Amino acid sequence: MLLPASMRVFERGWLSANNILFIGGDDTTLVDTGYVTHAPQTLALVEHALQGRALERIVNTHLHSDHCGGNAALRHALGSRIAIPVFEADKVRVWDEDALSYRATGQQCPRFTFDETIAPGDFLTMGDLSWQALAAPGHDPHALLFWCAQQGILIAGDALWQNGFGVIFPELAGEPGFGEVRATLDLIASLEPRLVVPGHGAPFTDVDAALQRAYSRLDYLSFDPVRNAENSVKVLLKFLLIERRTMPLAEVENLFETVPLLVLARERFLPRSPAELARWTVQALEKAGAASLREDMLTDSS
Amino acid sequence: MVPATGLCEGCMRTIDEIVAWGRADDDYKRAVWAEIRRREARMFE
After folding, report:
1. What per-residue confidence (pLDDT) applies to A1?
2. A interface residues, B as partner, C-beta within 8 Å
3. Which residues are CB-neighbours of A211 under 8 A, at least 6 positions away?
4. How do residues A81-118 score in pLDDT, each as one tens digit?
5. Which residues of B touch A301 (CB under 8 A)?
6. Phi/psi at A135 (nearest 5 deg)?
């Protein structure tokens, strides 16, 4: 078996990031808690796997809504401590929804508090194994990787998936992101992981092939920032569509007028009217088989 | 989860199956997939 006995991965759909549950002799830790609408199921999965043991700690790779949306509910139900990336502490303390990504993306995340912070370089014991936190900027400026050198296992969050990586959000706001993604991929390559547990999708061992796909994806996106903006609006709309399952075309147009990151992408990179951009994005999702449009209702499909 | 069936609304797996999935081999996953197809068929009968 690829995973150590103390480590379990809960893989669900794309809306909730993977949850990694560590059950050690002396510690129990959950890495990432999924999206808020799945929180009751996340709690059920964790309680089922823990069989009466307490969940002592929640750790987040980064604070996007699909990774920490269950933090509040799990803490409330299980009394777990919460540890977050250190550079997010001030924002979480005052729950600055503008600086956190929730308002900008139109996504939901219930307010939570934290007990500990994790800085790049820190070591954590999870499942009786030693894991080092490493900085993984790019998709999110303050994201962390967790690396277990002894096992050759990397918890990658959204820095590397089997096929790609998370949206390079900073570039939308005119902040650097492409160079950071490249540096993070270089870091992962230098670790030579045996197994990567990504934030979405199944754990994988063909890491070199995944890295090559990620580098070529990065080359494609960074060649022209318009490509990154187009990719971003597709992913943002798809996320909201998975959450809501179906919405009228008029609501899609409304999103392009009101969701700050969609507005920003349009104003900076994709100069056309909200209705035109809505129509273009819907067609792109249809073409990818990610949505279907019938009688002005857009419905999610996978 | 749907209380009446004990299945996840989205993937039609039980809590047991979702917990086991991450450590399971391909045979287990294929067997669950076959069961999912049967559940779907029953649901849409």
Report:
1. 52
2. 1, 3, 8-13, 40-41, 44-45, 48-49, 202-203
3. A160, A185, A188, A189
4. 999 999 999 999 999 998 999 999 999 999 999 999 99
5. none
6. -70, 135
DSSP element (H, E) containing A156: strand A153-157
Tokens (6 digits) for A247: 């919405």
Question: Mind listing the pLDDT tens digit for each residue in A166-223?
Answer: 999 999 988 999 999 999 999 999 999 999 999 999 999 999 999 999 999 999 999 9
Q: What is the DSSP letter of A70?
A: T
Q: Which residue type occupies A176?
A: P
Chain A nearest C-alpha distance from B26 (Å) = 12
Spatial distance between the Cα atoms of A159 and A167, rounded to a whole number of angstroms: 9
- Which tokens hold the place of A258? 């009101």
Facing residue for A48 by CB, picked from B8, B19, B23: B19
The structure tokens listed for A22 are: 């560590």
Tens of pLDDT, residues A208-220: 999 999 999 999 9
pLDDT of residue A13: 86
User: SS3 for A274-296, per residue?
Assistant: HHHHHHHHHHHHHHCCCEEEECC
- Global ipTM: 0.87
| CB contact residues (below 8 A), chain B span 14-33, against chain A | 15-16, 18-19, 21-23
Rounded to whole angstroms, the Cα distance separating A190 from A93 reads 35
**Nearest to A112, CA basis, from A142, A86, A77, A75:** A75
Q: At residue A73, does pLDDT exceed 60?
A: yes
Calculate the CA A69 to chain-centre distance. Answer: 11
Cβ atoms of A109 and A36 within 8 Å: the answer is yes
